[in-house]
Amino acid sequence: MMWKYKILLDSTSDFPKEQLQPWDVDIVPLYLTWPDGTSEKDDTRDFEELKKFYEKLKSSTELPKSSQPTVEDWKAKYLEVKEQGYDGILVITISSNMSGTFNSASLAAREVDFPIKVVDSRQASTAISPMARFARELFDKGDDLETVEAKLRNAMAEKRFGAFFYVSDFNFLVKGGRVSRFTGFVGSVLKIRVAIYINDNGEMVPFGRARGFRAVLEEVLKKTQEQGFKPGDTVDIYLVSCDNMEELKEIEEVLKGVYNVKNVYYTPTGKVISTHVGPGQAGYGIERY
Fold first, then answer.
1. 134 and 17 housed in the same domain
2. Within this chain, do residues 114 and 14 fall inside the same structural domain, yes or no?
3. What angle do CA 159, 237, 166 make, to 5 degrees?
4. Beta-sheet pairing, 234-241 with 204-210
5. 240, 242, 243, 244: CA torsion to nearest 10
6. What confidence tens digit (pLDDT) does each residue in 37-94 have?
7. pTM of the entire structure?
């Protein structure tokens, strides 16, 4: 007998919309609240809609604040999935060191009489998408919910997944309070490209800076290799940008010269991630086979 499991991610996963149906994934959105009190859901993956949001960010003097889905939001989605005839749910959230999303998803799971496993990815954005792909492949092979959760946690411990990127305006990350150990990067470097990765504690950490695209990409590639993704490895790459598609194309070509790239996916940053990284951001999630 084949079990039927749904994978739920939160909207900070920046999941490629083309894969929602093939991998049977659904998204629970976070929220943004603007200084004037208006709020909106981070619920679109449409590039044209996001393009308008990017322009709004560029022209705003104050950034909106993000907040996690509520316990009630998660409960409603869990019950919806249950009613659709699924046998259980695997939830993968943004790092608990960046958001309270993992906590609200976990609390809601305890209040619903249904098999649910909630995993703290210790990552963000396109490092989460390959975790969903990994889990779906195991489900398709017939593994049950507990087995897939255990195998996913093992893969995470083995550093099979990673996220590496750069921002063009570090001021967005400073304002959003989503980076750690950024002493020395503020002040005059706010308009310089800053390279970022997500460490083992699930925190975004700046590690390099440069004025030009090639120079900052070299820093990002170096860190990628230091984190265990060796040249020649077979990988999938999940290219992501906040209004910087041109440089993503170049990043793809560079990565194909370093790795044996199996699959390539493109996705724009959603509203919450965009608010924190700012227009001009570019980078990639990566999965090592």
1. yes
2. yes
3. 85
4. unpaired
5. -50
6. 999 999 999 889 999 999 998 888 888 999 999 999 999 999 999 999 999 999 999 9
7. 0.93
User: Phi and psi dihedrals of 33, rounded to 5?
Assistant: -120, 125
Shared domain check, 247 and 169: yes
> Mind listing the pLDDT tens digit for each residue in 160-191?
999 999 988 776 666 655 555 555 555 445 56
One-character DSSP codes across the chain: ----EEEEEEGGG---GGGTTTTTEEEE--EEE-TTS-EEE-----HHHHHHHHHHHHH-SSPPEEEPPPHHHHHHHHHHHHHTT-SEEEEEES-TTT-SHHHHHHHHHHTSSS-EEEEE-S--GGGTHHHHHHHHHHHHTT--HHHHHHHHHHHHHTT-EEEEEEES-THHHHHHT-BSS-TTTSGGGGGSEEEEEE-TTS-EEEEEEESSHHHHHHHHHHHHHHTT--TT-EEEEEEEESS-HHHHHHHHHHHHHHSEEEEEEEEE--HHHHHHH-TT-EEEEEEE-
Determine which of 99-103, 179-183, 250-254 has the lowest per-residue pLDDT on average. 179-183
**Which residue, of 140, 157, 174, is where some domain finishes?**
157
